[in-house]
Amino acid sequence: MIRCYIPGFTRPTEEVRYGDMQVLIDERKRICLVIDGGCGKGTNKLISYLKRRKLYKVYLAISHAHYDHTYGIRKIINDDNFIVLGLYCYNPDSLKKGLSSNEGSDDVRDDIANMKTLLTEAEAKKIKIKYLEHGDKVTLGSIKFNVYRRQPSRVADDDKNGWDYVNYGSLCFYFYELYYWTSGDGSESIYEFIKSLGIKVVFFKIPHHGNNCNKTQAIGLRKLGALYCWYNDLEPKGIGTTDFTAYGARRCKENGLTVFETVGDLNWIAQSGKLVIYKGGKKYQFNVPYQPKTVLKQPTVDIIRNTFMGKYGTSDTRTSNLLDIGYYPNSVQTKVNLVIKVAKQIINKEVNYGSNQTRLNNLDKKYGTGYGQLIQDEINSLLGAKSKKW
Question: What is the CATH topology of the domain spanning 2-287?
């Protein structure tokens, strides 16, 4: 099973850049791939997650050398808790191909210097560095991806509320067994690029902080079969506004794509020919070629009790925590809903399981050992009688 965790946050009151970051894990082999490392609070949450799950042996991949993608990567490289098994990136000298014709040449030169600084730090830690080129293939356990890239260019979107930006040659990672595409700030024409490659993409990350996807791109991606997309940075007004980072997300939403914000964690898993996205208490599923089976378990009564007690948090945080300990979030929610439903039925006298120990026994017999007391506790809670005898 492949698990992907994308850190989420609360809705900000003003624009916040947490940077790009995501973690893919082959749960059977405990192989961990971190793509970009975010910045600021984003990096802090990313590293906290890795340490909480004891994912100390990691592979790192960098889409490009911007600060809000590489800051967290440098933090991991220089944190002695981690053993970096490999670092994937482009050769910074390859950016020189775009200097002569690029209006942002000074910025590109800075990026070359920034990447070289990072690589020097990695070399000091004796980390194996692999420069990726267009068309390369990488396999890490059951995590498999192809690498695609266009060289730097300056682009001005002509769609309403579009923004000029410089694409500094971002690497794009295509997980072909998952129909999943992700990158940093490029490519500048994601629809044309994907179409030219002849690949199938159902789920993708909107490049450049969710901004890089105008109307033409969104319509084209939908026609190619894309259904879902996400973006990392957040605006106070969210999807549907004219704010910078929501621009591409708005175009995607307007043209039939389901867009996931990282208000709260975003999780997805791939197993047994399915990729399932968990967000906001819902799940979204589509078929994929990836076949390895699940390592997730059906919840025990103790897991359900802990859920009622709030041990795993709420909403998307609860989803993350349940996946971390190996349980299906939706199975847990189904059991929680069942306990609440039966408790209400007993209160409303729609069903009769007896009283006292007889009730406990009858409920245990029907729903499983321990559910009688759990349902009774919910009855007491609903009645506001936690301390009363029944």
Answer: Metallo-beta-lactamase; Chain A (3.60.15)
- What is the CB neighbour count within 10 angstroms for residue 243? 21
Residue 154 dihedral angles phi and psi, to the nearest 5°: -100, 135
| Three-state secondary-structure class, residue 152 | coil
- 120: buried, middle or exposed (CB in 10 Å: 19+, 13-18, 0-12)? exposed
375, 367 in Cβ contact below 8 A? yes
Of 84, 91, 257, whose CA–CA distance to 181 is shortest?
257
The per-residue pLDDT for range 14-53, each reduced to its tens digit, is 878 899 999 999 999 999 999 999 999 999 999 999 999 9
- Spatial neighbors of 141 by CB under 8 A, at least 6 apart, are 26, 28, 29, 31
The helix (run of H) or strand (run of E) holding residue 131 is strand 129-131
Could you state, in order of their start, the residue ranges of all structural domains in the chain?
Answer: 2-287, 301-383
Q: Which residues contact 166 (CB under 8 A, 6 or more apart)?
A: 102, 103, 104, 107, 108, 152, 154, 155
Residues 6+ apart with CB under 8 A from 312: 306, 318, 321, 322
Q: In angstroms, rounded to a whole number, what is the distance separating the alpha carbons of residues 100 and 139? A: 35
Q: Quick one: DSSP state of residue 12?
A: P
CB 177 within 8 A of CB 146: no
**Cβ(209)–Cβ(244) under 8 Å?**
yes
Give the pair of three-digit tokens for residue 5.
Answer: 């965790």
Cα–Cα dist 330/302, whole Å: 16
DSSP H or E stretch at residue 132 = none
Residues 292-347 have pLDDT tens digits of 987 789 999 999 999 999 999 999 999 999 999 999 999 999 999 999 999 999 99
Question: Which SS3 state, helix, strand or coil, does residue 108 take?
Answer: helix
What tokens appear for 243 in the block?
A: 């704010």
Write the CA distances from 243 to 13, 28, 44, 232, 251, integer angstroms: 13, 41, 25, 14, 12
Instruction: State the DSSP code for 91.
Output: -
Of 246, 187, 260, 252, the C-alpha closest to 215 is 252
pTM of the predicted protein model: 0.91
Adjacent-strand bridge partners of 269:
3, 276
